[in-house]
Amino acid sequence: MRYQISGKQIDIGEALQTHVRTELDEVITKYAMRPTDGTVVFSRNAHEFVCEATIHLSTGLNVTAKAHAIEIYAAFDACGEKMEKQLRRYKRRLKYHYKQRPEPVELFEASSYILASKEQADEAEPETLQPIIVAEMETQIPSLSVGEAVMQMELAGAPVLVFRNEGKGGVNVVYRREDGNIGWIDP
Question: pTM above the 0.90 mark?
Fold first, then answer.
């Protein structure tokens, strides 16, 4: 597995990098996943260290965790515990559904835009009602079942996930509602 371990405006020593590699390898082998690569980024937020980690699995799913702590090793350990919990749940769901995905998730290309917020726009009356595009990027939309989409959204810690429904072929959305439940939009 390839690792990219870095720090934002802080130096990451060899001892910490070795600790990260051994701990992540232990978690991955415990749940027999097939990871392709992993990214771990350390940063500092006031008096706390922040650890953000992402592991890309060969099935196309991503596991993401973020943790804060006063010490850098404690921040990583808390992040590792969150990842282990997510992988344990993911493996349990795979066993529960009796479904093994033999092929990686199919991805479709799409355009992604960032629009200017009202605070960025000047206070004068706009000439047109079209929003101002700040950035344009390429993104990928995975082809998943609804259950896999919910699992991917929870693994990524995202509030919303756009996906192509494998059953119907249309573009669907799952999102976390304010009451804690999951919403599913199937046009």
Answer: no
